[in-house]
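Subgroup meeting minutes
Present: P.N., E.W., G.H.
Scribe: E.W.

1. P.N. recapped why we're keeping a running log of single-chain structure predictions: easier to compare across weeks, and new members can see raw inputs and outputs side by side.
2. G.H. added today's entry (244 aa).
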Amino acid sequence: MNKRVAIVTGGGSGIGRAISIQLAKAGAKVAVWDLNASNAEETVATIKSAGGNAIACVGDASDEVAIDASLQATREQLGPVDILVNNAAISDFCPFLEISHETLDRMIRINLRGPYILTQKVVPDMLAKKWGRIVNISSSSAQGGSTGMTHYGATKGGIVGLTKTLAIEFADKGITVNHVPPGFVDTPMLRASPVDVDAFALHTPMKRAGKPEEVAAACVYLASEEAAYVTGQTLSVNGGRYLQ
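Output recorded in log:
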């Protein structure tokens, strides 16, 4: 991945941080996009301390003005984009009949509309090079459903559809598009949820939560030269929680 330029949204913590770090270890120049400035800078500092190349871009990856500003900074400081990992997202637990329209709209804007817009703006860079890798972080909730997460599962299901249709459209252009649905992964977002992480993990096949680094490894493979003939695919990282 030497000299490849990668964007990782939500790269300031959890799965996004692990992806950013592992892409940098593989040789990519990484633009760490995050809403939280200190988190983004911490990820960048970790990458640089290991000899990698990274910049922090702070802003809302679901807002078009912020997307344009971060994309401009990425291109100016690192170059045209080769790899895009749409990772930024929010989750929520709420009974279906209690989900407000405002909550639904926010979930769609961040989890689906943002990745859609950003991908549309990045693809021209990839077309110009006749090479590109797009990895979307979906969710096992879109595969097998999840109680109290109707709105979340619906947006992640949209990501799955986006992945497959883009894969077909750009298959002969040197651009691959795949998605990784994490299962039960131990992240700050999961720890902040009402789920008892350690207790729930005992009910999964591996009886443990996944690690962000395990999801990152799948993303690095899909972004590599070796994955050139892999597109439109689901690479589940869920410890056997959902089987295909």
